[in-house]
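Pair request: fold both.
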Amino acid sequence: MIGYHHLYYKLGVALLAQTMTFSTMGVLSIKTLDGQEQVAVEDAEKELQTALLNSKDQIPEMAPDEQAGSMEVFLTLLHESEDAIQSVDRYTATLEKQVRVDGELQDPEEIEVKVRHKPFSVYMQWKGDGQEALYVEGEHENHVLARAKTGLAALKGVWKLEPDCKKAMEGNRYPITEIGIQKLTERVRKFFTDENKCEVFTCTHEIQDLEDHPTIVVQMTFPSQEESKYSTCKYLFDAESKLLYGVELCEWDYKGDPAGIAEKYIYHDFNCIDSPHDKEFDSENPEYSLAMDED
């Protein structure tokens, strides 16, 4: 098999041997860590693609030592994403979401989200029907305030729900308390450090121009459902900020063959410069329809 470890290292040096800092103007800047080998991204990418083409007829499995090399690249990105998002107090984004619940693939959703880390707070408004939801840690008895804009649920007005109750979890795999890039990154890290014990799988990464800027796309393919609950996992890392801004996880069908989407979450238009004010996490905000009598 081609020397993937060396190739991943060279490509990884050009992309991963960088650290993100926030300037006083809130603009992302990149600096290279001292002592790292300088490699042109284009050259490393060409070498990687050539190696992949030359090895396409071989069994697409990595030996444990080669797997460790590619996983090191992924885990480095994951660590940098966790560091980067901890430097952000609040942000806005558009969440593209599609999940499978109880075997049924839900319709795609597009949701405007506002996230504040301390205290943890989430405001969501669905683009399709205007539905709203608000969760603020420590307020409203740690309940979710939600309001449907269509159907019978709209007649009730504002709903006050436990985040993980049956009603709040309709069409969801995770409660509102798990929304956001930080929570997403934590779940991915937990899966690969605590839950996933598979030792044989393929792992590739490449640079793609997504979201109008370079994205490092990492994809993993697992051999069977005995080894992993997912058949494939795709992760999108912003090449500049290093944030993990998207995942697409596919599952197995009842025969044990690779199937379609289990979970897809992509945070578009991430903005931590024009970040939301505290009033945007207030149920009394006149722009929302979430005000209710707390008595």
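--- second member of the pair ---
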Amino acid sequence: MSLSNADTEIIAEPSFATRMLRMLWADKFALCAAIFLIIVVILAFIGPAWLGDLATKQNLRGRNLAPFDWQREWYFWLGADALGRSLLARIVAATQNTMMIAAGAVLLSAITGTVLGLIAGFSSNRVGQIIMRLADVIMSFPSLLIAVIVLYLLGSSILNLMLVLAITRIPVYIRTTRAEVLEVRERMFVQAARVMGASGKRILFRHILPVVLPTLTTLATLDFAYVMLAESALSFLGIGIQPPEITWGLMISQGRQYLTNAWWLSFWPGLAIILTTLSLNLLSNWLRIALDPVQRWRLEMKGRKHG
């Protein structure tokens, strides 16, 4: 009995990237958030070269220029600061430092915390307890207080701010990774790898880490928003990035004394922080569902229906 072409046709399984794009298309809020974040990343790369000169060019005749004056040049449509510098140009130019500090702090804390969490969850109980007590010591101090003390002693710079924010977030990754490893290491595929003679290092990084990684990815996305807000708070307090460097938080700090008569000085950089944080939270919620094999079917069904 011969089979028809329809019976013998093999439907190719879509790639991981295709499935992720379909699921992103199914969630329009996450799609808008991803597009906004892509624009922010592009501005972080090209911003200083594109509008860096306009961001530092002073025009005292245009001090605290109000926004929405369409008769002026396009880069003054959001107004000007106390020295007559274009707010739009300064927001675009400040994107690089803001994203660099947040991304660097999240990357350092995620890598360090994940490695320590893997060791704490997979090694002996004594080693795990030592690592967890180290995390408890860091968490026992308020993160902003640690940042204030360290930055006061070492001075404010992009590198110092990045390191301080990274140190304060390491315990979060240690605790999350250890809890995941303690659960995953008892599963059948890990036991099978042990029986087959796989080394502890191979089991940890080839079998356990890929299972833990989706949770850590979601956590890092949320943490990016937290670190960006922490940097803005430190700059607002005057111990973060110092001029001539610029971040969104520093722009808010510089505009606070003009809030009664020039609200736009702090409003626009504050709006940039709000939109970026909101986009990161929306994308984090989407990632949590998209990377979960139990829940992703909802997005996959919507993606097939609309795509």
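Observation on the second member. The radius of gyration is 24 Å.
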